[in-house]
């Protein structure tokens, strides 16, 4: 895989100003590449399992990377689909899937 960097000038794709942009600090891109090279299969599999367990065809899963002790961790999940009246059952399924995955990782790590 690749990390798409796009145009070095973030203003090239914005319709209006969104604040100040600075270059990526030295070494940060390499750290991200290392984390993804090492953990991508786990991140992808867990993200897909979470979406399937909730009965969703798509789900944004934000991951926290770079901690040697804890490894990759889910920071947030967001359903990006349409607003629908039947979302409550999907929300319950998503919460159960997240809790099950979290508890199974704790068991694997030997944490009570």
Number of helices, where a helix is a run of at least 4 consecutive DSSP H or I residues: 2
SSE string, helices as H and strands as E: HEEH
Tally of DSSP β-strands: 2
What's the pLDDT, averaged over the residues? 78
Structural class, judged by helices and strands? mainly alpha
Strand neighbour order, sheet with most strands: 1-2
Outline type = globular
Distance between the termini: 36 Å
The helicity comes to 40-55%
Oligomer: single chain
Descriptive overview:
This protein has 112 residues and is mainly α. Helices cover 43% and strands 10% of the residues. The chain is built from two helices and two strands. Strands 1-2 form a two-stranded antiparallel ribbon. A hairpin with an 8-residue loop joins β1 (60-64) and β2 (73-78). The chain starts with 27 loop residues before the first helix and ends with a helix. The model has no long low-confidence stretch (mean pLDDT 78).
Characteristics of this structure?
two-stranded antiparallel sheet; 112 residues
TL;DR of this structure?
The protein has 112 residues and is mainly alpha-helical. Helices cover 43% and strands 10% of the residues.
